[in-house]
Amino acid sequence: MLSRRVPRALSGLLSCSRFISRNWRRRLFSSSSRDGGIKTWEVRCGSAGWITVDIYNAHLLIAPTNPLILYLPPTGAHLRHIHPEVPPFLLSNPNILSTQKHQYPLARINYRWNIPHPVPGSPHLLSTSPKFANHAFPTPLHDTLHAYTWLTTSFLPTFTAGRDDSSSPPRSPSPYAAVSSYTAPPRTPPRPLIIYGSFLGGTLATSLALTESHTRPQGGVSIHGVIIHNGIFDWTVAATSKPPTPTPSHLSNQASSTREQQELLETGAQGWDFHTLHRLKEKLFSNPSSAFDAFASPILFFRSSGLAIPSHFPGTEPVAPPIDDAILGGLSLSDEELAALRERHGAPSPSSSSSSSEEEEALLPSTPRKSPLKFPPTDSNLRIPNSLFLTSPTPSTEEEPTTLEMQRQAHELATAMRRSIVMHEFRARKGGREIEAHARSEERVRVCEVRETEMEIGNVVGEWMEGRV
What we know:
alpha/beta; Rossmann fold; 13 helices; 12% strand; disordered N terminus; AB_hydrolase_fold; Alpha/beta hydrolase fold-3 domain-containing protein
C-alpha cells in the first residue's frame, strides 16, 4: 500500500508549475505579510489537471529554520467561496503566555474533493471542464501528494539554493593549506513542517503525516507535528451501513435547509455527526471500497476493518449496466420478448431486491472483529509524528450518541498511535521502561476537547507549537 502511494514517486510528474499573479484576489491577512499579500501557484497533477497552492508570508521562508505550516481546508476547492479564513493562529503564535511572538509562513493546498457544483454566478454547470468534474476519492489524495512533492522538491529548495554546497569539496583559505573536513560549511538543517487540517482536510493531513514522518529527514524537510481539528479517521462504518433513522430535528433541518445552508454544513461550520457522514459518503466516494483505503480511513493503518466490503452503498439500489442493442439484435426474439427482457434488466425483480436487502443486513457492522496491524512497517524509516487532536462537541438539544462520533474516532486513533509507540518503538530499544514508554506516548499524541472559539483553539495550538518548532 505504501509503496504505491509515497509522494516521492510523483516527483517526475511535477516538473511543470506556473506562478500566477493574483493582485485582483481578496487580500486575506495582508497586514501580517510584508510583501502585501498572498502568492498563488498552480501545480500540475499529472493528467488530472491543476490545483492551486496559496503561499502566505513567503518572505519568512528565507530563513531555512523557519517552520512552514501546511494547511488543508475543511472541504474541497468547490466550496472555496464559503471556506472559513485561514485561522490567524496559524500565521502567528497567539499564546498569551508566550514571551515572544512568532510569525509563520503557510501553504494552503486547495485540493479537490467534490461532486459537480456550479460556482456562484455561473449560469450552468461546466461539465466539460476538469475543474467542475466529479473529483471523488482518491483525487484529493493525489492532489495533496502532488502539492506536497512540489513544495518539498521544487518550491522550498529555491529559498536555500546556494546556501549549502556540501556536495563539492571545501575551499582552502590558502593554496598551501590542506583541505580539511573541519573547514566544510555546515549543512542546512531540514526545514520544520507542521501540518494542520480539519474535517476532510484532517483526513488528508493525518494520512500525509503518518506516511511522511521519517526518523531521518528526507528532501530537506522534517515533519515536526500534525494538528487535527474535528477530523474523520474512519469512513468504513458509514460506507457499510444504512443511514440512521433521522430524528425530528434532522428532518426539520433537511426540510428547511437551503442550498447555501447545505454548503455551510459541508464545510463543517455547524459540526458533523453520524447523520452528516451518511449524507456525504456518496458525494465523496464513488463506491464503498474507496472508503476502505487507509488513506481515506487512517485508522486502517493500525487495524483491519473487520467488515466485508459491499458492492454498493446499503440502502441504495445497484446500478445495472445497460444491455447492448447489438447483442439483442442478434437474438431471435419478438418485439414483446425484447421489451420484456429490457424491462427485467432495468428493474430488478422482487426476489433480487429481497436478496439484496438480506445482503445489506448481513453487512451491517453489529459486532465487527478488528485485528491490530503493525504500523509503521519494519525498516520503513517512518515514525509516529507528534500529534494534537482537537475535538469540539456538536451543539445539539437532543441526547444523541451519534454526535460523539468525531470524538470517538479521535480517541480511537490516538490510542492506536500510542500503542504503536509503546509496542514497536520503545520495546525495540534495549532497556525501555514501560512507565516511561506510556508517558512518552501520551506526550507525543494528545487529545484535547475545545470549544469552537478562535481564542481557545489558538491558545491550545500556540502552546503546543512552542515546544515543537
